[in-house]
Amino acid sequence: MNRSQLIAQIEYKSSFLCVGLDPDLDKIPAHLKSEPDPIFSFCKEIVEETADYAVAYKPNIAFFEALGPKGWESLQKVLDIIPKEIFTIADAKRGDIGNTSKLYAKAFFESMDFDSITVAPYMGADSVTPFLEFENKWVILLALTSNAGSQDFQTIEDGHCKPLFHSVIEKSQEWGSPENMMYVVGATRGELIGEVRTLAPDHFFLVPGVGAQGGSLAEVARYGMNANCSLLVNSSRGIIYASNGKDFAKAARNEAKKLQEEMSVLLEKHRK
Ligand SMILES: O=C(O)c1cc(=O)[nH]c(=O)n1[C@@H]1O[C@H](COP(=O)(O)O)[C@@H](O)[C@H]1O
């Protein structure tokens, strides 16, 4: 999917919601556990009930690969039932020496047809650029993450006397453009989101951390939204585990709808 198609979806749905698919066998409703493929059955119902409100789905690969070959099969089946106009993110956090990154890219962009993949910047240009060689596919580079450990490296000053995340954002703009690269910016980072927006005025941000991690959607919009919105705000547990009963998919729908309604108001406010 290209950038203008993604922007058009955001406008059409008045939403910048990404639903995170983090299906944990220990957390899914008991009645699904006797199904032949419980993880797929769970995700299928979640996708069917939330697709009206979502512009992106982000399957977190860990939750699938933890189940071995069967988990990879479930992942492919989930990818197949996501409507084509909805952006897909393989949350795999890959990145390695060039020839290895190239094969990671083939795995997620060719063997599986994801629109994008999360990539770690630590190994530098030759670990990231192989992912950028695929038409209409995206790298989502970890810049300023939502977790407490982000302060161990990302916010300390590097050899250029600025926080490391600044250098990641500045340097990586030599590799990709707003047409094929986004940044991960945690919803829990408050006004630092504004610093990232100054450094990358046109790039999309994938913003995880609302819901279970306590980030504020209004704050994300205040600091991160630009004229095209350029935000994909993810919630995983807050949506998919809204209920662990037979009504789980309807409960997920309600949570997605609530977020979309809030997003619609924020988009409208930003237009004025
Ligand atoms: O790359 C990510 O998606 C990611 C980056 C980050 O900084 N923080 C973060 O929580 N994530 C992912 O976003 C999702 C957040 O899940 P919830 O906290 O349940 O909404 C998980 O799949 C995380 O792996």
From TrEMBL:
Pathway: Pyrimidine metabolism; UMP biosynthesis via de novo pathway; UMP from orotate: step 2/2. Its EC number is 4.1.1.23. The keyword Magnesium does not apply. Residues 16-252 form the Orotidine 5'-phosphate decarboxylase domain. Pfam families: OMPdecase (PF00215). It catalyses: orotidine 5'-phosphate + H(+) = UMP + CO2. Keywords: Decarboxylase, Lyase, Pyrimidine biosynthesis. InterPro entries: Aldolase_TIM, OMPdecase_type-2, OMPdeCOase_dom, RibuloseP-bd_barrel. GO terms for molecular function: orotidine-5'-phosphate decarboxylase activity. The active site is at residue 93. GO terms for biological process: 'de novo' pyrimidine nucleobase biosynthetic process; 'de novo' UMP biosynthetic process. The keyword Lyase applies. Belongs to the OMP decarboxylase family. Type 2 subfamily. PANTHER family: OROTIDINE 5'-PHOSPHATE DECARBOXYLASE. This is Orotidine 5'-phosphate decarboxylase. It comes from Algoriphagus ornithinivorans.
